[in-house]
Amino acid sequence: KQEVTQIPAALSVPEGENLVLNCSFTDSAIYNLQWFRQDPGKGLTSLLLIQSSQREQTSGRLNASLDKSSGRSTLYIAASQPGDSATYLCAVRNNAGNMLTFGGGTRLMVKP
Amino acid sequence: ETGVTQTPRHLVMGMTNKKSLKCEQHLGHNAMYWYKQSAKKPLELMFVYNFKEQTENNSVPSRFSPECPNSSHLFLHLHTLQPEDSALYLCASSQAGTGGYEQYFGPGTRLTVT
Hints:
heterodimer
């Protein structure tokens, strides 16, 4: 059974800092991996989807990397801003179907 | 309305009540999902519907009863719930079929069972 872990569970940084969020998964036979953002009490917003054949994906200040063999993904946020404060969730898909397995999330606070 | 909408946004119900959560997607998708997000636990998939047919039931208790009358609408009927069922219930949609398609989420319904 796939298990997804995100470390750290919470992170507080000053504005402007570059930071890395970590995601690890136990079964490396994944189809793709998705990073989401969740604001308090709100739904999820998809940030990046990285296919198993890809090593990284970039969107603006965000860069997600994937090392399938070691069961790891990282989300790099450059020049963090207070508006980046949210919970970041990593989810993996083990086949081409619908099932996503989520990690517990990293709660990020960026202080002005 | 755009994207995925959910109503109500907040719901308080007693253990003997019957209520329903509604989800509607305006994205032309054919797959819809219910997820449960409890405090301090990862998001859990509850049900999946593809082309109105239920294709996944993740061992969900029968006090949760989903209904998908068409590809745009999904309901979750609730009856005789327990306090531990209090959570944020999220609906999502995507293209159906084998392709590992991106899922789009609604804002959720915050449910409190008293």
